[in-house]
Amino acid sequence: QVQLVESGGGLVQTGGSLSLSCVASGSIYRIDVMGWYRQAPGKQRELVASITRGSRTTYVDSVKGRFTISRDNVKNTVYLQMTNMKPEDTAVYYCYVRAGDENWGQGTQVTVSS
């Protein structure tokens, strides 16, 4: 089992930037993929970005060129740097870690005002 603690998020204006971080603890030796999902009201949860232990990244098309995912394998932390944010980025963002099984953070609200 992996425990995840997220931080960051909040309110930002269109065009602004925010950063999210997520620290993993517990069975960290099993961690493979780390990533971020988001869920907007009335919509399904979607993958925003993911990163493997070897730093191979994947992004949803809507955030390419604006968001950057990174991880620190020593600190067991995954980051999401969000820039040039848009109102459609408004959602609850969830940290995700695959460590044999799936592990989820509690979620953090990100709101982009127009």
Would you write up a description of this structure?
It is a single chain. The chain has strands at about 1-10, 10-15, 20-25, 35-40, 45-50, 55-60, 65-70, 75-80, 90-100, 100-105, 110-114. With about 110 residues, it is mainly β. Strands 2, 4, 5, 6, 9, 10 and 11 form a 7-stranded mixed sheet that branches. Strands 1-3-8-7 form a 4-stranded antiparallel sheet, with no helix packed on it. It contains no helices and 11 strands. It is globular. The mean pLDDT is about 95.
Helix and strand topology:
Blueprint: E1 2-8, E2 10-13, E3 18-26, E4 34-39, E5 46-51, E6 57-59, E7 67-72, E8 77-82, E9 91-99, E10 101-104, E11 108-113
The percent of residues in helical segments reads under 10%
Quantity of strands, as a count = 11
Q: Can you write the helix and strand succession as a string?
A: EEEEEEEEEEE
Distance between the termini: 39 Å
Tell me the overall shape. globular
**Sheet with the most strands, sense and barrel status:** 7 strands, mixed
Low-confidence runs: none
Derived from helix and strand composition plus strand pairing, the structural class reads mainly beta
Helix segment tally: 0
**Rg measurement, Å:** 13 Å
Strand content: over 45%
* Mean of residue pLDDT values: 96
